[in-house]
């Protein structure tokens, strides 16, 4: 089958939508091809809580945060640690361009399309304790009013409007299996038409083929996302040298369509795919008690206060505190020889610090509901948090530490926790709470974070004893690794054109979003500062759309 269009966009996720928005603004005709049905329009972004990394924004200034492009770039480059001559050649330049965007046009770009932010800025990935190392020096996480679905709406609306003008054609249930290359240039895609599916969003769909298709255009844009749902690929690229062995079991933080196939297809066609050994995992995964996709895990987005113990009850060393340094913590946890770790919290900590990642877990933001938003002051009253505490298989509540540890031991195949060791850690930590100063670095970090008033008000409890019954009952959470983002991907120029392994550009082939490592094949390098993925899709989708609109005949 032949369909006339200027550009074929593979993937109807955020990056594909943004690129299509830009292309149609320039009057270009686009065919969007996606293996899933139309219920999945917007891809992963729909599931996101919609947090966006912005620099020196009006929201930050209102809250007295002194941020700047220079500080953000220094944080970004220190976190990224781009250290590969060839693979990071474009990624490094994308990093600078992206920080410029986040400190400049990004907010206006989405505001013009109706997206609004809460006047609250969160602080996450606070770093490893050095000014020159990984981490956000200041809060930069901006919350979209309407969360991920609103981010999707922002670009879906003009794209659907362009479709009614005949500029966009959607080809759902069309799975691309091959790029059509002629005379060294990408001129189209080929693949399988999959049987119709009525599955709701995020639910895996049938892969039964009912026919073949071929579509041709002047150029092809790959916007097919990463590989987080494909554990075989994750394991194949797992960086054992840096992180230690991969866990035997992992939870899955993305829908099944995040399968990484297009990365392999692009590589087979001659595109350069780089840095796939850089992935962004979360250590705080809990099994979703009401799963949508196979192995569905939800991230506990913790405040900095929980006591973090490894599987045997040893406290994690400084500066590996909750919400400080994801990959450094993962490296440590992999060295313990066990696949899980534990948070021990008080109920007061749950009330202020127990947040869950995802639009479905944040109905106040997603539904733009001000009354529900007030419940953030007491998170245990929020329905999704309550439901997790009541139904989640990884959560235990108990009045006494001994009962709690007994329950924790009963939850794992082997009773790995020695009560005396856990009690020693808890009591020693509790002794440090008596004064407003002390030698416990986690408590110092908590006090420092509370110097930022919004976090003090809604996010971080005043330091208190874990064994203080007034803050009870005690809560333990078993944590496992959750796959999420692919930081590497298809290598592109600053104009989103795919590069070949010899460094030359690939005519007619472009890439954006997670498939392109959020720009250039790995804009984040080794570490992310968070809220940078949706923004990375917006930025790289915008660049790809504008470049194509300008360059095509
Ligand atoms: C629960 C959750 C919470 C998140 N929270 C945040 C957040 O708050 N802030 C943030 O910055 N980021 C967040 N993210 C990450 C962010 O949402 C994703 O990185 C981003 O949406 C990826 O968009 P994309 O367009 O690159 O790819 P995707 O959304 O994965 O879309 C790719 C599309 O391509 C299609 N496709 C793939 N292969 C083929 C093929 N061979 N043929 C046809 N179609 C194909 C897929 O079906 C899919 O529809 C979150 C992600 C999740 C899952």
UniProtKB/TrEMBL annotation:
One Pfam match: FAD_binding_2
- What's the superkingdom here? Bacteria
Q: Which UniProt keywords apply?
A: Flavoprotein, Oxidoreductase
Q: What are the boundaries of the signal sequence? A: none
- Domain FAD-dependent oxidoreductase 2 FAD-binding, first and last residues per copy: 6-534
Does the keyword Ribonucleoprotein belong to this entry? no
Identify this protein by name.
FAD-binding dehydrogenase
Q: Which organism is it from?
A: Streptomyces tamarix
């Amino acid at each position: 089958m032949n369909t006339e269009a200027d550009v074929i966009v593979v993937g109807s996720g955020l990056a594909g939508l943004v690129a299509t928005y830009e292309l149609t603004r320039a009057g270009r005709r686009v065919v969007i091809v996606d293996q899933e049905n139309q219920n999945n329009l917007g891809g992963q972004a729909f599931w996101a809580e919609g947090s966006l990394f912005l620099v020196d924004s009006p929201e930050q200034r209102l809250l007295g945060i002194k941020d700047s492009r220079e500080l953000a770039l220094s944080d970004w480059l220190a976190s990224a640690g781009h250290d590969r001559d060839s693979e990071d050649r474009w990624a490094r330049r994308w990093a600078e361009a992206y920080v410029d965007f986040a400190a400049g046009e990004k907010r206006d770009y989405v505001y013009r399309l109706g997206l609004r932010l809460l006047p609250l800025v969160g602080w996450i990935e606070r770093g490893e304790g050095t000014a020159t190392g990984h981490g956000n020096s200041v809060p930069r996480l901006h919350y979209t009013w309407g969360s991920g679905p609103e981010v999707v709406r922002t670009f879906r609306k003009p794209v659907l409007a362009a479709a009614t003008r005949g500029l966009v054609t959607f080809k759902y249930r069309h799975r691309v299996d091959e790029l059509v290359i002629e005379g060294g240039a990408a001129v189209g895609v080929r693949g399988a038409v999959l049987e119709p599916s009525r599955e709701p969003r995020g639910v895996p769909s049938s892969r039964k083929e009912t026919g073949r298709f071929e579509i041709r255009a002047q150029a092809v844009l790959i916007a097919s996302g990463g590989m987080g749902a494909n554990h075989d690929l994750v394991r194949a690229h797992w960086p054992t040298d840096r992180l230690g062995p991969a866990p035997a079991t992992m939870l899955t933080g993305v829908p099944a369509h995040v399968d990484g196939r297009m990365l392999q297809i692009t590589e087979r066609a001659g595109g350069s795919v780089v840095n796939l050994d850089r992935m962004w995992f979360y250590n705080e995964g809990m099994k979703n008690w009401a799963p949508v996709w196979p192995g569905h895990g939800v991230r506990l987005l913790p405040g900095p206060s929980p006591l973090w113990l490894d599987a045997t009850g040893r406290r994690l060393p400084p500066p590996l505190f909750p919400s400080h340094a994801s990959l450094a913590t993962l490296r440590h946890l992999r060295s313990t020889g066990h696949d899980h770790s534990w948070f021990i919290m008080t109920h007061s900590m749950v009330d202020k610090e127990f947040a869950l990642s995802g639009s479905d877990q944040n109905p106040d933001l997603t539904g733009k509901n001000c009354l529900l938003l007030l419940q953030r002051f007491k998170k245990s009253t929020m329905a999704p948090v309550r439901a997790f505490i009541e139904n989640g298989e990884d959560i235990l509540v108990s009045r006494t530490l001994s009962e709690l540890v007994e329950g924790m031991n009963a939850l794992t195949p082997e009773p790995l926790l020695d009560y005396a060791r856990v009690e020693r850690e808890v009591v020693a930590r509790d002794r440090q709470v008596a004064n407003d100063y002390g030698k416990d670095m986690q408590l110092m970090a908590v006090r420092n974070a509370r110097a930022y008033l919004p976090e003090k008000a809604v996010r971080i409890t005043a330091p208190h004893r874990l064994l203080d019954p007034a803050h009870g009952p005690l809560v333990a959470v078993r944590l496992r690794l959750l796959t999420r983002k692919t930081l590497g991907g298809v290598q592109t120029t600053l104009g989103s054109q795919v590069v070949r392994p010899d460094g030359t550009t690939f005519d007619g082939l472009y890439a954006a979003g997670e498939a392109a490592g959020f720009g250039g094949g790995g804009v984040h390098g080794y570490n992310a500062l968070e809220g940078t993925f949706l923004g990375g899709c917006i930025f790289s989708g915008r660049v790809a759309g504008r470049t194509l609109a300008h360059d095509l005949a």
